[in-house]
Design goal:
Number of helices: 14
Distance between the termini: 37 Å
Largest sheet: 10 strands, mixed
Order of helices and strands: HHEHHEEHEEHEEHEHEHEHHHHEEH
Shape: elongated
Radius of gyration: 32 Å
Helix content: 40-55%
Number of domains: 2
């Protein structure tokens, strides 16, 4: 044991025989770890913000809707009464209530919105204003007029792009036309399915999300107005659930699937309800892992180059050590200790620099408008400032991977030092 400690001590001293080279190498390798930590923190932060914004503009973390609606989008598909009541009862249970931030029922359809100047096809969302405020991002994006009052039963809220195309402003009159549906459990009596119906509405508010398709085609009307227009009183298409933590989406979805077994509905967490967004995240994660691998390779090659050059330059020294009785295994251990010491210094530099920059991005954020001065990509329009979210798991895994990579690569210079042969190593050229 004493011999090992002595070899480690000698290796540490050897490392500082050229302090400038050691510090520069450690700083360069530390920058690699810093970039890994910063990129992972910003990636996780952007994912968290994007999910939070998208689910509040879309289906929530979990959505309950008629089976097949995700594929067909048919407005004829409506939720059974029993499914709605069973879902609401499940969400009120003691175990689930603490997880839920808000719920909202919606009646969805397609239609034609006509003004005095023009007409355009729209996606109709019949909503309950009070519950929609607890779930949707849209009420917070009103740029003109106001959102619906809690008990409001008529009116329409439209996007800025649609308002521009139809030359509308607050208080303008529009005609909304759509095809009425026939509820499957109402029987033939009073059937109105297939009949074109229309209603006169006034523009209550204008919103801007920054997502062009949403601002150009989506409108919201109070739920009673939509139900009357579609001929589907007390019926809805979706029940969206917003949770306090995105990670609980699958747990709640599985519980709802058990409760709604046998009902003609589908319960989808946001990754299944919005597969395109999930694919974007998967692509970004794969790209990030690729970059992670490149940084690890750079760190490993930096360690290999530095230690290997030291071994080649000290061939005479190693030969002298062998001549004085040092065994090859001890020589390899000494060089290996130098590599681990250099790796430890590099990790310390990387952690100090990386966590310092990450703390700045976690508090002040990274303003993407620096990189996109004219316009932001559609995925970033909600929050142009990204806040870093770096977990302890990410930190430990990053440090562990860098340390493991450097340790494995350090074996080669150590073995090369152990293969030093006498008397050739003692020749002076």
């Amino acid at each position: 044991m004493l011999g090992v400690l002595m070899l480690v001590k000698i290796g540490w001293r050897n490392l500082w025989r050229k302090p400038h080279g050691t510090l520069l190498t450690a700083l360069a390798l530390g920058l690699g770890l810093m970039f890994v930590l910063i990129s992972l923190g910003l990636l996780d932060g952007s994912h968290e913000q994007m999910v939070a914004n998208r689910v509040r503009l879309g289906t929530g973390h979990v959505v309950i809707q008629p089976r097949g609606y995700n594929d067909s989008g048919s407005q004829e598909l409506l939720l059974p009464f029993r499914a709605v009541s069973a879902t609401e009862e499940f969400l009120r249970t003691e175990a689930i209530t603490p997880l839920v931030r808000g719920t909202s029922v919606r009646l969805l359809a397609s239609g034609l919105l006509t003004s005095a100047a023009n007409a355009d096809d729209v996606q109709i969302m019949g909503v309950d204003p009070k519950s929609e405020r607890s779930l949707s991002l849209l009420p917070q994006r009103i740029v003109a007029g106001s959102y619906f009052d809690d008990n409001q039963r008529t009116g329409v809220v439209i996007g800025t792009e649609l308002a521009r195309k139809l030359a509308l402003k607050i208080g303008s009159k529009v005609v909304l036309m759509t095809q009425a549906v026939q509820s499957p459990d109402r029987g033939a009596t009073g059937a109105v399915g297939g009949v074109m119906k229309s209603t006169l509405l006034r523009v209550n508010g204008i919103f801007r999300t920054g997502v062009q398709p949403f601002d150009a085609h989506v409108i919201q009307v109070p739920l009673p107005e939509a139900q009357s227009l579609l001929g589907a009183p007390e019926r809805v298409t979706q029940l969206a659930v917003l949770l306090k933590w995105e990670g609980e989406a699958m747990v709640v979805a599985v519980g709802l699937r058990k409760v709604l077994t046998g009902a003609s509905v589908e319960v989808l967490p946001w990754r299944e309800a919005m597969p395109a967004l999930a694919q974007i995240f998967l692509l970004e994660e794969n790209f990030n892992f690729l970059m992670y691998g490149v940084v690890l390779a750079m760190v490993g090659l930096g360690i290999l180059n530095t230690i290997l050059m030291r071994v080649i330059q000290r061939r005479f020294e190693f030969g002298l050590c062998l001549a004085l009785g040092l065994r090859p295994a001890q020589l390899a251990l000494m060089v290996f200790g130098e590599s681990l010491a250099l790796t430890t210094i590099s990790l310390a530099f990387g952690l100090v620099l990386g966590l310092s920059v990450e703390h700045y991005f976690a508090t002040a954020g990274l303003d993407l408008r620096w990189f996109f001065p004219s316009s932001l990509p559609s995925a970033l329009v909600f929050d142009p400032i990204i806040y870093s979210r770096l977990s302890l798991t990410r930190i430990f895994s990053s440090v562990g991977m860098v340390f493991l990579t450097a340790t494995v690569i350090s074996l080669y210079p150590a073995l090369k030092a152990a293969r030093t042969k006498l008397p050739g190593a003692l020749k002076v050229f």
